[in-house]
């Protein structure tokens, strides 16, 4: 056989020595984006615009536009030409001071700039913290249901993930008995997401105190994912885990993405709430600084804008956002009432195929045969999507 140039080509398959990382492929498949890609592959009707009720990004809808003061701060930072340079690996001092002051409002002590490390969004904060903790043979305790990015990054870092349950009949509080049963000598940390993702719950202060005591008893640190801080609904007020930093060392991850509705600005943080200095003694702080030396920084002009973003944004903006935004709804799937539906993944794939509506199967967040519906869309899209969802359920109902 010739290739057109007179050169012979072997008919047998070539044996190349390279290929993708299996850890990477596995991590990608279990991410929210990986699962949603699987669901979206089922959309076949190009005449109907898809309705995205699976992965909330309200910023794409005009009613969720960020505060004009925040926009002005970024524009001013760019025009000043003061932020066209590389930033320090830990972030600009002025931005770190602004974040420290912002978070200290809810704490019984003052954070300093040395407690704050800026990142390229909260996702990078998670990546960094897990990478720092991932010594050979260690494990981390993750909530179920939870945010699957933690599972994906743990798998990529070869950090064993063990799951404790959140209790739906008890306000989605943590099963602390399960936490103690799961932990062993190789457990390094537990993750707490507050306000909750995907459940939208807010932990009571008394429960957080019990979490701190449990973690201290086990000798592990708490990773507090508070990216939704102050986007709380209901009667329970948001209390940061850092309040209990004197009991157990806390690493908080967060960003401006959710409260200011600007996920594309990619400005997050890692914050150590550790008045007793345990994270320094155990060299975790050294590890955080080390990983910042070998990774990308958030854009310098966004860092330069942070002080004015925090200082100038008015409370009216936050109130309006909360009035509009509903994070998620978790709905239990009653398979006995539906025809031709095997499980939550099958439900979501067939819904996409028949109605071009995208919702997330609960299996993606550790809750099989539940559905996660995001309300962080424009009102007209939400109405359209829920109408199509109703039609789908009526069509597959056994009552028909």
What is the gist of this entry?
With 400 residues, the protein is α/β, with parallel strands linked by helices. It has 14 helices and 13 strands.
Report on this model:
The longest helix has 18 residues, at 379-396. The chain starts with 21 loop residues before the first helix and ends with a helix. The strands form three sheets. The chain has an eight-stranded mixed beta sheet with strand order 2-9-8-7-6-3-4-5, sandwiched between helices. Strands 10-13-12 form a three-stranded antiparallel beta sheet. It has a two-stranded parallel ribbon with strand order 1-11. Strand 6 (187-193), helix 8 and strand 7 form a beta-alpha-beta unit. It is built from 14 helices and 13 strands. Helices cover 37% and strands 15% of the residues. It is globular. With 400 residues, the chain is α/β, with parallel strands linked by helices. Helix 4 packs parallel to helix 11 (300-312). One of its GO terms (biological process) is L-tyrosine catabolic process. InterPro entries: Aminotransferase_I/II_large, NHTrfase_class1_PyrdxlP-BS, PyrdxlP-dep_Trfase, PyrdxlP-dep_Trfase_major, PyrdxlP-dep_Trfase_small, TyrNic_aminoTrfase. Belongs to the class-I pyridoxal-phosphate-dependent aminotransferase family. Keywords: Aminotransferase, Pyridoxal phosphate, Transferase. The modification N6-(pyridoxal phosphate)lysine is found at residue 258.
